């Protein structure tokens, strides 16, 4: 959902010169969808990490998790800055969303056990 919301935002930014008011409303709605998806994803990531990790390594895994969550977007910031200047803002946003969707599909195909992950209660 996050990737689709961001890809849609790219389309809205691209169409903004044609219908600025409508695209502003669409952009805000798509950002709300992407934000809600990000919050749900964050909850799932934390729940999986806390339930799957042994007590002995949970702190270390949480440290790695924080490095990825804080550092990963900074790497993307550099890429977005470069691509934004090379191909334009709308294309950069849209392609970023599409890249997330494609990356998710590739990761799901490469690790089908992750897609089948279920929490064992009790």
TrEMBL record:
The chain crosses the membrane at residues 20-40, 89-115. The keyword Transmembrane applies. Keywords: Membrane, Transmembrane, Transmembrane helix. This is Major facilitator superfamily (MFS) profile domain-containing protein. It comes from bioreactor metagenome.
